[in-house]
Write a structure and sequence with these properties.
heterodimer, A: 112 residues, mainly beta, seven-stranded mixed β-sheet, four-stranded antiparallel β-sheet, 11 strands, globular, B: 113 residues, six-stranded mixed β-sheet, 0% helix
């Protein structure tokens, strides 16, 4: 039972490049979330999904897109990376809203 | 508006001392959930506890205890007889209707041997 996994673990991008972060969970959870963590700011919600085929904006959605084509996967896309998107990205999943969220190990992204 | 405040940015204690991490939350929802997570130096986020707004009973788990007081909108976390392995960043979080979580900015705890 792997829980929540994230791919890749670390990535360096140049400004303007695009990339997709993959989150996978094997707990059959309905809800999935993408957060970013920046020094001194805690975790901020980017986008979330309450089920396959549905997504919604969180606190800081600008510059990101998401897709939930399969229940177990939640993809986070950066179409044109900017240095301000340098951060650690965490994916989480939960059975239902407000239930405990279980987090992946994080993806460290550096945009030059 | 929903908000979680962890006023203590950094705390240092000597091993075996007790330490309390403060968490104050704001919400107009009558049903909500409160959480504590631990982030050790390795970076992962580890779930510690979940409390719903209707359950004000304090909880103790080994050296950890939590004090939930709706009257002061606080959900404080105490570590008794701290150990070096307790060194981490601790986050308090609020879960409300609408499926969103709101995290505090975290308290960095250093336990000095």
């Amino acid at each position: 039972n792997a829980g929540v996994t994230q791919t890749p673990k670390f990535r360096v991008l140049k400004t303007g490049q695009s990339m997709t972060l993959l989150c996978a969970q094997d707990m059959n959870h309905e809800y999935m979330y993408w957060y970013r963590q920046d020094p001194g700011m805690g975790l901020r919600l980017i986008h979330y999904s309450v089920g396959e085929g549905t997504t919604a904006k969180g606190e800081v959605p600008d510059g990101y897109n998401v897709s939930r084509l399969k229940k177990q996967n939640f993809l986070l896309g950066l179409e044109s990376a900017a240095p301000s998107q340098t951060s650690v990205y965490f994916c989480a999943s939960s059975g239902r809203g407000s239930e405990t969220q279980y987090f992946g190990p994080g993806t460290r992204l550096l945009v030059l | 508006a929903q908000k979680v405040t962890q006023a203590q940015t950094e705390i240092s204690v000597v091993e075996k001392e007790d330490v309390t991490l403060d968490c104050v939350y704001e919400t107009r929802d009558t049903t909500y959930y409160l959480f504590w997570y631990k982030q050790p130096p390795s970076g992962e986020l580890v779930f510690l506890i979940r409390r719903n707004s209707f359950d004000e009973q304090n909880e103790i788990s080994g050296r950890y205890s939590w004090n939930f007081q709706k009257s002061t909108s606080s959900f404080n976390f105490t570590i008794t007889a701290s150990q070096v392995v307790d060194s981490a960043v601790y986050f308090c979080a609020l879960g409300v209707t609408g499926n969103q979580f709101y995290f505090g900015t975290g308290t960095s705890l250093t336990v000095i041997p």
